[in-house]
Amino acid sequence: MEERKGIENEKINKYACASAIVASMISIIFGYETGVMSGALIFIKEDLKITESQVEVLGGIINFCALIGALSAGRTSDYIGRRYTICLASAIFFSGSLLMGFAPNFALLLTGRCVAGIGVGFALVIAPVYSVEISAASTRGILASLPEIGISLGILFGYISSYFFGKITLAHRLEGNVCDRSRPFSRVGFRHSWNARVTKMARMQGRLKDAKTVLSKVSNTEAEAESRLQDIRLAAGVDPDCNDDHVITPNQNTSGQGVWKELLLRPTPQVRWMLLAALGIHFFEHATGIEAVILYSPRIFKKAGIESKNKLLLATIGVGITKTVFISVSSFLIDKTEDENFC
């Protein structure tokens, strides 16, 4: 570990940072979806004349559909690569947004939200994976946290959008407040560089030359790039001293078979502890109910005594600003503080 710290430069690589930022932009769709729907639910119930139960289903269905997308994203990214998975996520979300934007009734609106939810699930998985793969260990905390910052920014933008769209007529509101979310993200995947395919190129395809070229761009020094390439060689079962441009790796024909069995049925002690830590952190994070607070902020403020719709939507902007500020602060501190002390 000390040797690795000596090899790696603490400075954030600009190329890796720029790539991680572009990749994290797709995470904004989840936050934007949540922020927009939070405000839109106030008007949807009145405009479409739906029941309270239908409002709750409409608000919560995205989490179930996002689970489907998240479970599919890993295998999909292994087959077609990280970049094209981001393109796919953008296309799915764009399709769902179009359905919601032109939905004349509750059924079609719910269908569009389900489709968009699948795209959100893809985005929630692939953005952190991309960021982790291209980042050095010394800067992995901040770069891997960029998707979370993107979600918070998306929520804030969604709240602001809901506030301004709340002032216009129904026809423009349904077309703009819902369909507007698809515009910036439909182009995200097509702007992407190819550098996050480094792990797949080296481990599954044996393209060591391409992997080294990419690593030289996302590393601060040649020594750091060589050290990371050495780790990939070992993980792929390639001779550490091999300098061929293309090799046949022992794992080249694998597609991830047996991963779930290794993870859940026959985990090693190290994997078991990592699994428990990951599940525990995410469970307690979501058990606080923060997502419900974000989604139902206008209703919470209404219960607190605020009656005006404009004031309700304006109050939610304060929630978005607070969340974004503290997420940003914690993300910038994570690489400067020991993880256990930070928690």
From TrEMBL:
<keyword id="KW-0472">Membrane</keyword>
<dbReference type="Pfam" id="PF00083">
    <property type="entry name" value="Sugar_tr"/>
</dbReference>
<dbReference type="InterPro" id="IPR005828">
    <property type="entry name" value="MFS_sugar_transport-like"/>
</dbReference>
<keyword id="KW-0813">Transport</keyword>
<feature type="transmembrane region" description="Helical">
    <location>
        <begin position="86"/>
        <end position="104"/>
    </location>
</feature>
<dbReference type="InterPro" id="IPR003663">
    <property type="entry name" value="Sugar/inositol_transpt"/>
</dbReference>
<feature type="transmembrane region" description="Helical">
    <location>
        <begin position="142"/>
        <end position="165"/>
    </location>
</feature>
<dbReference type="InterPro" id="IPR036259">
    <property type="entry name" value="MFS_trans_sf"/>
</dbReference>
<protein>
    <recommendedName>
        <fullName>Major facilitator superfamily (MFS) profile domain-containing protein</fullName>
    </recommendedName>
</protein>
<feature type="domain" description="Major facilitator superfamily (MFS) profile">
    <location>
        <begin position="19"/>
        <end position="343"/>
    </location>
</feature>
<comment type="similarity">
    <text>Belongs to the major facilitator superfamily. Phosphate:H(+) symporter (TC 2.A.1.9) family.</text>
</comment>
<feature type="transmembrane region" description="Helical">
    <location>
        <begin position="12"/>
        <end position="32"/>
    </location>
</feature>
<feature type="transmembrane region" description="Helical">
    <location>
        <begin position="110"/>
        <end position="130"/>
    </location>
</feature>
<dbReference type="InterPro" id="IPR045262">
    <property type="entry name" value="STP/PLT_plant"/>
</dbReference>
<dbReference type="GO" id="GO:0016020">
    <property type="term" value="C:membrane"/>
</dbReference>
<dbReference type="GO" id="GO:0015144">
    <property type="term" value="F:carbohydrate transmembrane transporter activity"/>
</dbReference>
<keyword id="KW-0762">Sugar transport</keyword>
<comment type="similarity">
    <text>Belongs to the major facilitator superfamily. Sugar transporter (TC 2.A.1.1) family.</text>
</comment>
<dbReference type="InterPro" id="IPR005829">
    <property type="entry name" value="Sugar_transporter_CS"/>
</dbReference>
<keyword id="KW-0812">Transmembrane</keyword>
<feature type="transmembrane region" description="Helical">
    <location>
        <begin position="312"/>
        <end position="334"/>
    </location>
</feature>
<feature type="transmembrane region" description="Helical">
    <location>
        <begin position="57"/>
        <end position="74"/>
    </location>
</feature>
<keyword id="KW-0769">Symport</keyword>
<dbReference type="GO" id="GO:0015293">
    <property type="term" value="F:symporter activity"/>
</dbReference>
<feature type="transmembrane region" description="Helical">
    <location>
        <begin position="273"/>
        <end position="296"/>
    </location>
</feature>
<keyword id="KW-1133">Transmembrane helix</keyword>
<dbReference type="InterPro" id="IPR020846">
    <property type="entry name" value="MFS_dom"/>
</dbReference>
